[in-house]
Amino acid sequence: MREHIIEVVEKVLTCGKIEYGYVKYRCLICNEEYIHGFSCKSKFCTKCGRMYSINWAEKQANNMLKVKHRHANVVATNLVTFLNLLKKSLKNKNIVSITLERITKNAIIYYINIK
User: Fold this and answer.
1) What pLDDT score does 32 carry?
2) Which of 74, 90, 71 is nearest to 82 (CA)?
3) What is the pLDDT of residues 65-89, one digit of tens each?
4) Fewer Cβ atoms within 10 A, N terminus or C terminus of the chain?
């Protein structure tokens, strides 16, 4: 196994454990203390990865133009998977899925004619 994979796994396993470092907070009113373990900040950690995804989504939302339409990319690993996704979306029969259907049919015809 690669060295960096082992490091990532070890980092995730120690995430939030106070034995590996922590911050201590104390309430100035009641003097109650709260200890919070350092996070690993890894995309592969279930806790830190979630925060990474939330922060990324917020950043993307802030970068988007303020327009009424949206652009979406549909990614499928193969043609069969894509056609199954398309079939499911066509049940709604909205303008996006109808347009997607037309584009897909033209792309498939083009793809078949190339081969």
Assistant:
1) 93
2) 74
3) 676 666 666 565 666 666 666 666 6
4) C
What does the block give as tokens for 79? 């043609």
Token pair in block for residue 10: 């070890």
> Residue 40, class by beta-carbon neighbours within 10 Å (0-12 exposed, 13-18 middle, 19+ buried)?
buried
Burial 52-67 (b: 16+ CB within 10 A, else e): eeeeeeeeeeeeeeee
Among the residues of 15-94, which ranges form H helices?
A: 46-63, 79-89
Residue matched to tokens 């997607």: 100
Calculate the CA dihedral of residues 91, 109, 104, 67 and round it to 10 degrees.
-140
The model's pLDDT over 39-51, given as tens digits with 9 standing for 90+, comes to 988 888 888 888 8
First to last CA, the chain: 40
